[in-house]
Amino acid sequence: MGLVDVSRLPQHVAIIMDGNGRWAQARGKPRTAGHERGADAVRATMRAARRLGVPALTLYAFSEQNWERPQVEINALVDLLCECLISERDELVDNEIRLAAIGRLHKLPTRAQSKLDALMRETESLDGMTLTLALSYGGREEIVDAARELARRTRDGAIDPEDIDERSMDALLPSMNVGPVDLLVRTGGEQRISNFLLWGSAYAEFVFTDELWPDFGANSLYSAIAAYQARERRFGLVPGAEAHGGAVSSRDELERAI
Ligand code: FPP
Questions:
Q1: What's residue 241's pLDDT?
Q2: Structurally, how many domains does the chain consist of?
Q3: Residue 87 sits in a domain of what CATH number?
Q4: Backbone phi, then psi, for 204, in 5-degree steps?
Q5: What is the pLDDT of residues 243-255, one digit of tens each?
Q6: 20: CA distance to ligand 1 center in Å?
Q7: pLDDT digits over 108-145, tens only?
């Protein structure tokens, strides 16, 4: 934690949690064992982020493309999600963590939807940190859904196409409720975005680590934040110009700079 300057924290950290399967395979265990250990890493990371004072943490827990995995693995992931939504309830409430979710949530089995809805409702007024789970999520799908809504509103005469700007999209993208991503971390050695928060990551700093997700924890988060803090964020400005923290309020300044 000494590595981290708590006065300059990223306001929104997003994580692509990769490597559960490889972690399990390396130990001769079924992939599901990796997901179970992955849930422990979720808890450790969430606690560390909260303790530091990071306002928003978004985790890629299940992509739209993950529906193509073997049914037995999908069932295990949904069961694990359901268990966590029960076991982590006290952790969220005691630490004033608001739970949110993004993605095509209607595609989740109803047993998961109902537990998710209940815990989101119970924690909706908490303001210590927002933990967003991306479930059945795809960045392109989210943008398509927003475009469709804008088209509907235009057709109905509620908006003029000329008035559509970045703010219109921000307002329609559920992932933007907690603002743009400042720091995007991917574990597991791959260096790609895999259809995660495409819009909100436009100016994110990326940190890639070879660590497999079940091995990630508080120290890994501190290292990623320290790496972020060592970078100069320029947002299209020239070197040495004042960098700012990526908050939504800086968007006008950002647009003028491009
Ligand atoms: C990627 O590893 C991980 C996932 C597809 C699922 C993430 C799920 C968890 C961390 C478990 C619990 C989370 C919650 C929120 C309850 P992979 O299986 O693609 O790994 P591989 O690349 O090594 O195969």
A1: 62
A2: 1
A3: 3.40.1180.10
A4: -70, 150
A5: 444 333 333 433 3
A6: 5
A7: 999 999 999 999 999 999 999 999 999 999 999 999 99
> Separation of 239 CA from ligand 1 center, angstroms?
38
d(CA 144, CA 26): 38
Residue 253 lies in a domain: no
Beta carbon of 133 within 6 Å of any ligand 1 atom:
yes
Q: How far is the CA of 35 from the centre of ligand 1 (A)?
A: 5
Best probe residue, ligand 1, of 18, 73, 116, 132 (max atoms within 8 Å of C-beta): 18
Which residue range is the domain that position 46 belongs to?
6-229
Give the nearest ligand 1 atom to 22 CA.
23
Q: Catalytic site residues?
A: 18, 66
Structure tokens at 167: 């703010």
Q: Which residues of the chain fall short of a pLDDT of 70?
A: 1-2, 240-258
Residues 6+ apart with CB under 8 A from 183: 10, 12, 13, 14, 204, 205, 207, 224, 225, 228
